[in-house]
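User: Fold this; tokens only.

Assistant: Input:
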Amino acid sequence: MRQKSGPEKAPAEQVVMDIRRATRRQFTAEEKIRIVLEGVRGEESIAELCRREGIASSMYYGWSKEFLDAGKRRLAGDTARAATSDEVTASGGAGAEGGRGRPDPGKPPA
């Protein structure tokens, strides 16, 4: 019998996994919010929206549930919001302790 010459082929399962990994889209938070808000507006059906965006309707409904749950938690005050860069600048930087819990070396002790 003849021996095969050339590189060894990857197993079929590995090829399928590589293709799935390469074709899987990653949506940013902004894209998810945009899609969910378009669905909430109701200008077109959820099925049409999902077809246009190339997503499964179950993915849309999952995002919608996360979006509404996060809004509910935020309104209930269960989550701490990170300060925006404008708020940090307006407050004079990192806070009274210099941001690391240590006294500012340029300030005299209180």
